[in-house]
Every structure is written in structure tokens, then in C-alpha cells.
Amino acid sequence: MRFIGNVLWFVLGGFWMGLGWWLAGLVALITIVGIPWARACFVIGAFSFWPFGKEAVKRNYITGRHDVGTGALGFIGNVIWFVFAGWWLALGHVTAALANFITIIGIPFGIQHLKLALIALAPVGQTVVPSNQRFGLR
């Protein structure tokens, strides 16, 4: 069922939004200063291509400790991210969600786009894990 969901997702907006994340990652990588954001873009971009069966969670939930991305510097990084790229990606996901909400079959995909829109606003300090690993979190 996950496979079918992922294939439908890929066709109904996942492909374009994944490319959007990767484009943001390339731009961040080219600027040199944006290298820390580039990694987050590529990880979440891959998640945006095939999201079913995976979940984005805060890294400190997995590791049990704070690191640079989950502390005060991560907050500052997320603010900078939001100003330069986050709201554009979130707007793309919200637009795709609205397009998916038009049909009954697209409602689950629209919900997933809204989840990704929230991630797009503050991706620093997040990681992607399999959904079944979620229950092993601390």
C-alpha cells in the first residue's frame, strides 16, 4: 500500500516539490554559507519525493541530546531559512495541498503536503526516520 501511495504522491505533486527542495539545496550549496541548509534540503527533498512510510522528527528526539541544529543556533538557522527559502517552499506545498483537496482521492496527499509545508518553515534540526521507528523514540 505504501508503494502505491508513494507512486500516486510522486505524480500528484511530489516530483515537483522534491525538485523544489533540491533546487533550494543547490542554491544554498553554491552560496557556501548555505551549506548547513543544503544538507537539510537534500534530506527533506528525498522525503518529499517518497514520503509514505517515513516521518520527519526533531533530531534530539532520536539522539536524546541537543546538538547545534536543535539548540539556539538551530533556531537562528531556521529564522534565516524562513526568510530566504522556507516560506517559498511552504507556499508551494500549500498550493499543491489545495490542488489535491479538490478531489476525494487527493485528500491524504493534501494532508501530507501540509505536513511538509510545516517542515519547510523550519527544517534545521529535523531528520527523517521510518514511521515504524517512531515508537522507539525517547
Give an overview in words.
The protein has 138 residues and is mostly helical. It has one domain. 68% of the residues lie in helices and 7% in strands. The protein contains 5 helices and 2 strands, in the order H-H-E-H-H-H-E. Strands 1-2 form a two-stranded antiparallel sheet. Helix 1 runs antiparallel to helix 2. The longest helix has 30 residues. The protein is globular and about 40 Å long. The two termini are 28 Å apart.
Can you give me a brief rundown of this structure?
The chain is mainly α. It has helices at residues 2-30, 35-49, 59-63, 72-101, 107-121, and strands at 54-58, 126-130.
Number of domains: 1
* Overall body shape: globular
pLDDT < 50 runs, ≥5 residues = none
Q: What share of the residues lie within helices? A: 55-70%
Distance between the termini: 28 Å
Radius of gyration, whole Å: 15 Å
Instruction: Report the order of strands and helices.
Output: HHEHHHE
Number of strands: 2
Strand content: 5-15%
Biggest sheet descriptor: 2 strands, antiparallel
The averaged pLDDT comes out at 84
Number of helices: 5
Oligomer designation? single chain
Strand line-up across the major sheet? 1-2
Class by helix and strand content? mainly alpha
GO cellular component, one term: plasma membrane
InterPro entries: Inner_membrane_protein, UCP028777, YccF
Membrane topology: Multi-pass membrane protein
Transmembrane segments: 7-24, 30-50, 71-88
Provide tags for this entry.
2 strands; 5 helices; YccF; transmembrane helix; single chain; 138 residues; mainly alpha; UCP028777; cell membrane; 68% helix
